[in-house]
Amino acid sequence: MVVTMKELLEAGVHFGHQTKRWNPKMKPYIFWARNGIYIIDLQKTVTLFQEAYQFIKETAAKGEYILFVGTKKQAQDAIQEEATRCNMFYVNRRWLGGTLTNFKTIKKSIERLKSLENLLKDEEYCNQIPKKELLKLEKQRKKLEKALGGIKNMDRLPGAVFIVDSKKERIAVSECRKLSIPIVAIVDTNSDPEEVDYVIPGNDDAIRAIRLFTSRVANAVIEGRAEYEEKLKAEGMAEEEIVEKTEEAAEVESSNAEQAKEEIVSEKDSQVIEEKESKELEEEVKEEYKEEETNK
């Protein structure tokens, strides 16, 4: 089991929002209401999170990227730490409009960030320009790093996006839907589950709940990537084996060709010898015939 009921209870995953702040579409995931607070059905959370975990693992096993998104204060640290732990990408400050739908433009900003980083590492260059200009460049770098630091090495669109609080990250959700990128999200009682492909019903405000789900998603990525690397390794070995067999076959073919060539040459030599011997014999017969005619 990916997550237990006990872990969910201890993390406070079952606490939803106030009953007056709810989305009726979340009704199937609600167990009951207590003291004006909706209580989430954790049995459904366990089952649905198992499905989400498997999907993330399978996506990572195909070599796809998983983008972690959580810009609310409670999620920022967990998103950055867990995405970094599994070598994936993240957005934990502000979602820039067009991060996915206008990725070409975003990549230009990323290139600018990398260019600034390289410039500011160059001591000779930094010593030549005025201090005011240097501070200006550093300010630009920090601004871009804050916005794009978590995706600066993402060279293509992700295969899936994991989101903490689908309601708050509605722009990210909208972009994913436009591009048909699967969404895995923690969905609280005030959110619309129909916008999410893999719903994880749960508290999206409690730090412990956020960290629990985010760490398990990172584990799924790590498992999937391990499978992907094994597959690449096996394919590499198979490729080497094919190359070896091809080389062996080529050697055998070459050897057979040489042997056939030798046989042909040998056969030709034999024919030449036979023809020569035949001519010599013919000459001898002619000489003998002449001698007999002379004697007569």
List keywords for this structure.
three-stranded antiparallel sheet, five-stranded parallel sheet, 296 residues, alpha/beta, Rossmann fold
Give a quick rundown of the structure.
The protein has helices at 5-11, 42-61, 73-85, 103-121, 123-128, 131-148, 170-179, 207-295; strands at residues 15-18, 30-34, 37-40, 66-69, 89-91, 160-164, 183-187, 198-201. The protein has 296 residues and is of the alpha/beta class.
Give the radius of gyration. 37 Å
Largest sheet report: 5 strands, parallel
CATH uppermost class: Alpha Beta
Low-confidence stretches: none
Query: Order of strands in the sheet with the most strands?
Result: 5-4-6-7-8
Helix-strand topology string: HEEEHEHEHHHEHEEH
Give the overall silhouette. Answer: flat
The CATH level-2 architecture is identified as 3-Layer(aba) Sandwich
Terminal Cα span: 119 Å
CATH homolog superfamily: Glucose-6-phosphate isomerase like protein, domain 1
Derived from helix and strand composition plus strand pairing, the structural class reads alpha/beta
The total tally of domains equals: 1
Question: How are the elements arranged and paired?
Answer:
Elements: H1 5-11, E1 15-18, E2 30-34, E3 37-40, H2 42-61, E4 66-69, H3 73-85, E5 89-91, H4 103-121, H5 123-128, H6 131-148, E6 160-164, H7 170-179, E7 183-187, E8 198-201, H8 207-295
Parallel strand pairs: 4-5, 4-6, 6-7, 7-8
Antiparallel strand pairs: 1-3, 2-3
Helix pairs in contact: 1-8, 2-8, 3-8, 4-6
